[in-house]
Amino acid sequence: MSTLLAGDVGGTKTLLALYTVEGGRLIRGRSERFASADWQDFAALLNHFLAAGPPGETRPAHACLAVAGPVRGGRVKLTNLPWLLEERALAAACGLARLELVNDFAVLIYGLPHLEPDQQLTLRSPGDRDPKAPVAILGAGTGLGVAIGVPTPTGLIAIASEASHAEFAPRSDQAVDPGELPAATAAAAANADPLARAALDLWLGAYGSVAGDLALQTLCLGGLWVGGGTAGKLLSELRTPTFLQAFLNKGRLSAVVEQVPLMAVVDGDAGLFSAACRARMLLV
Asked: Is there a smaller number of Cβ atoms within 10 Å at the N or the C end of the chain?
């Protein structure tokens, strides 16, 4: 039985957890949440967590950390912290045989094939997913995350992306800024506020259209997932024609988009789970 270390490292909080591999499944064990700003040295934080286990706890040898920042050559400077992390140095400092750093949105790619029914919800299913085709995920939160998964003989490889920074091509004369639409707008729309309803519909149409664009850009017949902070909060809205018709409305290429299975990630700890999935891949 192998023990793995998974982490979700952000500017506000750091989540660390141990997972065991039992019968092909990942079983979550001890976990802890830390305020990131309380630690000047990340290696010290990691060693504190590893040393805090009960007597006899199996120490992990392989780890994957999902990190809020672009990873280049095994190094990452966190966006909102002075931490500079490097894979080999961190593994040596914490007694790990192998440690991998992955962007905190791109890491979700590794978890997608292993999500349980309670971690995801189907928004639209034209049939079975193609296991040999690419997958993709996008998620609106403070920004808009986009990542692509390319199938290989040993599993998916995550491709980080800055696709969300492409210029916005309006579909009408009205303006919309996805980052300015909080969940409160959806609540107001549910209470029959006409202005809130109009704003929400405008955003849903834009979001659905961007999702359809991503489906065409990646030909992700293995599936397209909607994640991020809005997936759980606006789940019912993502199942409406306002979002889904905008997703499908791609003119002559609508028939291509119609073949793409569309799901939503509803597990708030999907990042941590996905990091554990990637750590399991490092065992090979």
From this structure: C
Query: In this predicted structure, what is the pLDDT of residue 102?
Result: 97
Paired strand residues for 149? 135, 158
pTM given for the model: 0.89
* Tens of pLDDT, residues 215-256: 999 999 999 999 987 888 899 999 999 999 999 999 999 999
- Tell whether 125 and 229 lie within a shared domain: yes
Q: Is residue 204 a part of any domain in this protein?
A: yes
- Residue 274, domain member (yes or no): no
Spatial neighbors of 177 by CB under 8 A, at least 6 apart, are: none
Kindly report the three-state secondary structure assignment for every residue of 40-52.
CCHHHHHHHHHHC
H or E element that contains 109: helix 108-111
Same domain, 86 and 141: no
For residue range 18-33, list pLDDT tens digits in order.
999 998 899 999 999 9
Task: Tell me which DSSP letter residue 72 carries.
Answer: B
- The one-letter amino acid code at 157 reads I
Sequence-distant (≥ 6) Cβ neighbours of residue 24 within 8 angstroms: none
Mean local confidence (pLDDT), 12-23: 94
Same domain? 186 vs 209: yes
- 166 in any annotated domain: yes
Same domain, 170 and 193: yes
How do 62-67 and 3-9 pair as beta strands?
parallel
With a pLDDT cut of 70, the percent of the chain lying above it is 89
Assess whether 122 and 225 both reside in one domain.
yes
Q: What is the pLDDT of residue 82?
A: 87
With a cut of 50, say whether residue 180 has pLDDT above it.
no
CA dist., res. 241 & res. 153, Å (int): 37
Number of helices (H), then strands (E), in the chain: 9, 13
Amino acid, single-letter form, for residue 112: L
**Would you say residue 78 lies in a domain?**
yes
Looking up residue 217, the CATH number of its domain turns out to be 3.40.367.20
